[in-house]
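The instructor's notes for this session suggest beginning with a concrete chain rather than abstract definitions. Hand out the sequence below and ask the class to guess, before any prediction is shown, which regions might be ordered.
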Amino acid sequence: MAGWRERLARRLAPKAQGEQQEVHALYRMLLGKTPTARNTAELIAAYKQVPQFRSVVAKIADHVASVHWRLYAVRSKSGKAKHVRTGQIIERDERKKELARYKRQGELEEVQDHPFARMLDIANDEHSGFEARRLTQIYLDVVGESFWNLQRGAFNQPTAYWPLPPHWIRQTPSLNKQHYEIKISGRSFFSPVEDMLWFRDLDPVEPYGRGSGLGESLGDEIDTTDYAAKYVKAFFYNRAKPDMMVGIEGASPEEIKRTAEGFRQQHLGYNRAHRAYFHGGKMDVKELNSRFDELKIVELQGSLRDAFVHTFGIPPEVLGILTNSNRSTVREALRFFASETVVPRCERLRLKQQQRLIPMYDERLILEYDSPVPEDDEFELNAMKAAPHYATRGEWREMQGLEHRGEIDDIHYVPVNLIPQSPTSAAVVELSTGPAVVREPILLTQHKDDDQVLVNRVLEDLRPERMKDEMYALHRHNMQEWGDEVLDELGVAVGFDLINPLTAEFFDNWENNKIKLINETTRNNLNRTLIEGVRAGEGIPDLSKRVTSVFDLAKGYRAERIARTEVLGASNHATYAAHKISGVVQQRQWVATYDGNARDEHERLGIADPVGLDEPFVVDNYSAMYPGEFGAPEMDINCRCTTVAVIGEPKEAKALGEVWKIYDRRLVPWENAMRAAAKRAFDTQRREVNAAVRRVFA
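After discussion, reveal the predicted structure:
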């Protein structure tokens, strides 16, 4: 029977266009059907056993795994994520320029609370992200390939990945078998193609087969290093071989024993070294051992080490080999290692994940990593010295390792001899003929600007994360329970999943918009009263009283309104997400507040026809998927409405009233807890802002 290569060659004869597409598919799949290379396990074992080999591979893997990864989205002014080509740009500098441009335009947003972002930190239940990336890079450098087995959660999206040793993968997919064969401890398992991510350094001999790593090209060097180490070990164990053999012709066993004992008595011990031994009779001496320095073992090991270092592209200084090195060469060696060894490996990992893994979530996401190349501080300092007026005071402070203090440091040192001039002609100055007192408003304006700078420094300590820290865990706990109860009521035997894309988007919006809006209101109130106090000449005690007054009001009506509005939106989102997860809900019905305090628009929604599961509720010029999601204060604040799933016929008004009463009662404990959380956050912010008042105005 002809081998697959012969069959493939016959299939590659000129064909019609449709048949050619089939040939291309066969070409890819047949060449992909490749078993594990015979020496894969041995090479990986060599990583454990050969120290010079391990030190080089581990150094690269440690640096690659230490790189910090980030997930971005580019959003339009309306807040919607946009499709951009940035993630698919292979050339790193061009990609960085694109990201910088979006950042300048205020469109680039880092996505943090996302399943993939969490996988970057925690790969699975056993491995951190660092450990999994380190293991992946070790496999790639040693044998040229690594595999991730994807673990999926709700919405069929990956929530974890498990790095697998390449020698566990017994077979890659073929034309007739669309799966990977995994063999562990004698048992075979099968994983579909879509659940595996295959990182591969292509083998030029078999570019459609298994990977080929740098470790394979060092097979002889690895073996030689191992043999040299074993030889040295055997040398000191002496292999039961004496250093010399002494023969005494015609001597009896007793005479030999007596002679040997006399020799030991006269020569054994450091204080008897180099003594001559005299005896009668014919003696023959044969030296059997070689001198250790004649074996050149040290030179051999150094040569083998250099082979590993040069093959993997690591400057010796990175491994602590500082012969003939100085501070400058060490610094440049680290930069070279990062840019020429670490960065290309990061690019390979990034591209594979961007093309294969990111589309499983959202193609609009962009995966990027922080540059591992250290900054050239000496070059930057020389550049700043050449034109010191281009750098701000804050940049000079940061160069010295000092803190940037905000707007007060955003000024430039300009020499007095630098006077702006027109490139064509001198400016004509009109002399004022009015009284000198007209200059007073200019001085007053300058003082007002200084007051605002001081107040802004105080308000830098008004941190929105204080509100988030108090509310986030509370929201997640209650939304989990709420979603589970909704699913139980629907009779669905699945649990509510907080990492589904809907809820992840909800928390992104909550953190980036709602929490910021709460903080912005507090900031405006503080700014207004502090400016009044500063311009009135008040001291620290009076300014602190103003701060306390703002937060006392916030802990009253504002905390009540925040709790009600936030819980309303979160509970209704959990209901909507549970309806989506259930798989049994097709329509939903608006349930308006039943105590006579509903908005007119909400009452009209309550008597309108049900809407589809993926359709918004629309009234006038407003639309929302659920109550609290209109994005307009006049439609969301203090709202008490909810929704109910339509299973069969829509509910009548009386039944809707009962639904609303149950809903309203269930909100009370959540609202009370949220109100207390808001008060705690306001208390923390009050203490921090008052501390800033004492520091700035001292």
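Then share the key points. The chain has a mean pLDDT of 82. The first helix runs from residue 4 to 11.
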